[in-house]
Description:
Keywords: Membrane, Transmembrane, Transmembrane helix. GO terms for molecular function: NAADP-sensitive calcium-release channel activity. This protein has 13 helices and 9 strands. With 425 residues, the chain is α+β, with helices and mostly antiparallel strands. Strands 1, 2, 3, 6, 7, 8 and 9 form a 7-stranded antiparallel sheet that branches.
Amino acid sequence: MAHLDSEVKEECLREDLKFYFMNPCEKYRARHQIPWKLGLQILKIVMVTTQLICFGLSNQLVVAFKEENTVAFKYLFLKGYSGIDEDNYSCSVYTQEDAYESIFYAINQYHRLKNISLGTLGYGENEENRIGLKVCKQHYKKGTMFLSNETLNIDSGIETDCIHLDLQTLSKDAEDWKNSSFFRLEFYRLLQVKISFHLKGIDLQTILSREITFDNKAHSGKIKIYFDSDANIEECKDLNISGSVQKNTQYVLVFDAFVIVICLASLILCTRSIVLALSLRKRFLNFFLEKYKRRVCNADQWEFINGWYVLVIISDLMTIIGSILKMEIKVKVLILTMQASLPKVLRFCACAGMIYLGYTFCGWIVLGPYHNKKYQQNGFPETDLQEFLKECSSREEDQRASSDFLSCVCCLRRSVWCVIRPLCS
């Protein structure tokens, strides 16, 4: 009875192992089990792809607005901007008079912004909760220039001076703040002048940080002017949306919630499959250790871990987190960061891919002829798990052959009986 019970357990283990390593079609033919995980993955792919397309289309206008807004601000704040950037900077000046005029022009344009801009803009508060411009100049600590013997004595230490010009100060006579000692620049020791301010863009629902930098670090007689902008997300107060826009937003939120439910179901099913696979592996290890008195190799143990399930679980977790963030921020401007970083990431991937392919071909050409490739001629040796499953297949073939032989014998006996019976009658 003990021997019979051991054989029954062995056959059950073989059947479970054989069923586990079947593909969904074979499982359906064997037990008519519906491949729920496969159908759920196909549905998830369709829904997540639709979600990404809708998210990209909804943010396309935001990206276009950001680009057009940046060009508009360059025309507004940079004196003499031609519409085409010079290398990596926007424009440049070559005389002290042009430098002063460019600085004062940007300040005056900020003060007159609401009267000259075509966009819907407002003044924003800086880090100190103050509205206005912040002008900072960076220069060497000390410097003395002797024109007689053409020598220049410079202390390499750098110091920064800043001044804040609020709207009230700018509304006064411009000569008052223009003639202040702060704007008396000593260009031979000046490194850069930076003008920074914040603006509210209602269309973007953000605060835009703008920065104009006059770079004189090279002291070559050419001051490069840089225009930089950054967008920070900030919720609108008393947001009230009516009409079809709000309905569309609700539909998108419902769709995102449904995607989260589908991903949770996929996550649960894949986790359940991994748990069952680990349980089956434990049964196989105990049986092999009990019958053959040795452990199963690591390669066979890893056969029970389906890497696709692990990837699906990671993908589900990331999709759930992304959908939650998407529902939270709705149509905010995170896509701008991706747009700015995507070209650099693609260039890095292209370079890294070429290097990887180069090393791969080099190893294949140089080391390939010296490698013993008997496995390619005779095949790889079968592992313990494969031999165990092969016994199950051979037994099924023997049983099928014996059943075919018995059916043939029965048919022969039946036909002999049919021939003899009429003779007897």
